[in-house]
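A quick aside before the break. I want you to see a complete sequence-to-structure record at least once, exactly as it would be stored in a machine-readable document. Don't worry about memorizing anything.
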Amino acid sequence: MIQKKICMVGVFGTGKTSLVRQFVHSKFSEKYHSTVGVKIDRKPVQLGGTTVNLLLWDIEGRDGTQEIQTSYLRGASGIIYVADGTRVRTFDQVFELRAIADKALGIVPSVCAVNKVDLVDTWQVGDERLAELDPTLWHALTTSAKTGEGVEEAFQWLAGAVIGERPE
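That is the input. The structure line, written in tokens, reads:
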């Protein structure tokens, strides 16, 4: 079995913990609990005949003026950057977080999950903004931790990418 460390990175309230909970436990909670430090979960993923054990490091969100704890990134094989599609500023901050992580870790396979797509009335990140994400640097998709939309795809894509299988 292959084991890979995946970090969840984003500012506070974007849904990092909820995405992990949906992926690992198929559960969603409306209650908001701020992550302090880092919370680690684990989930095996089947890719063809290969089992990849994902160690999911849910790193505390920052308020946008604070930098992420780069020590948490050490040893990561991939990163899921999470933005809140109802707060466009969090999408802009993904680019800043990516620059910090790339400097600390180097370029690793990455996903940009623009979360909360179920909140259609307050959605602020259109297709033209998603097109700003260079597909050679990261896989971009919209997700909903509440409904599960895009969640499995985000983690499966990254699992494949970190073992060298570049999914389309």
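Two observations worth writing down. The beta strands are 2-9, 38-47, 50-59, 78-84, 110-115, 139-142. The longest strand covers residues 38-47. We'll return to this after the break.
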